[in-house]
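Reminder to self: keep the SMILES exactly as supplied, no canonicalising. Ligand is pyridoxal-5'-phosphate.
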Amino acid sequence: MARVYNFSAGPSMLPEEVLKKAAAEMLDYQGSGQSVMEMSHRSKVYDDIIKGAEALLRELMNIPDNYKVLFLQGGASTQFAAIPLNFMNGSGKADYVITGQWAKKAYQEAQKYGEVKAVASSADKTFSYIPKLDKSEFTPDADYFYICMNNTIYGTVYHELPDTGDVPLIADISSCFLSEPLDVTKFGMLYGGAQKNVAPAGLTICIIREDLLGKARDITPTMLNYQIHADAQSLYNTPPCYTIYICKLVLEWLKENGGLEAMREKNVKKAKLLYDFLDNSKMFRGTVVPEDRSLMNVPFVTDSEELNAKFVKEATEAGLVNLKGHRTVGGMRASIYNAMPYEGVEKLVNFMAEFEKANS
Ligand SMILES: *Cc1c(COP(=O)(O)O)cnc(C)c1O
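Structure tokens returned for the bound complex:
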């Protein structure tokens, strides 16, 4: 069996141990005589899976009791509408920071529902930095303040959170979920699609402070009403059962491997290897200002389109796949999520060094 190192931004690599366990349990989940794929979501055996996943997530992220954890469908993109529908219920205003395509899409969707302000943007330099925030620009009576914490396409991350005072901070953490410890109490809501760092596609996890719930607008579709899902403990309708099961296996893997502190250490080590190489290379360079670099997504370029294409092609042949960058940045992007082993990044860096030597 030849497995590649997959640098895809998402769906992305899962830990091999998790895939093996899922394979071993495929036909007969723990003596139930059935696959998790075939189970009723109302059965006792499945209830243990979904409750177990929530308990593990709470433990790993240190989620306080006054936050609800929801396992939903629809992807992160569906929350772009659900967030204003559920929370734009006071002044009808919200602030957004535009740090890339995902933040912009969320901002545009919210404009359908209220008075939305872009308090800062880094569009002027292809989102290669996190803009400095001027508090005097913030809307004092905003219903919430929205950020995209890790910008998957552009490779930036907030190392410092905006101080929004009493205005609840809402963050899309799709591409940095579980990559390092995060203080949940700083947020009104955290959410993300699972397919980057947590599970296969199909699951969206929302972590919401309880006091923000129960005030959705009347027009809110039932399926987008967070209170409905919270009351039903994510079983209002059929949840993405199998994806939640894999999520649970990933959470068990995280716990067995030392939790989020250990994960941060590993992720810092991997990212440093790649950034150090980029900083010393004469052919390749990172596209993000050093102070805002993401641990998870690393875009880089050469000065030649031709060399970029050659590099991606030859890397693929060497088993280093999905390195082509997003069309809005060009060049390459290496997504090095939790499941990417150190050896994968080492292989990439060695390959880049050889490529540089052979082509200069
Ligand atoms: C991938 C991604 C999305 C979109 O997720 P879907 O689940 O495909 O809707 C949104 N935000 C961020 C930060 C992402 O990385």
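Points to follow up:
The chain has nine helices and 14 strands.
The longest strand covers residues 115-121.
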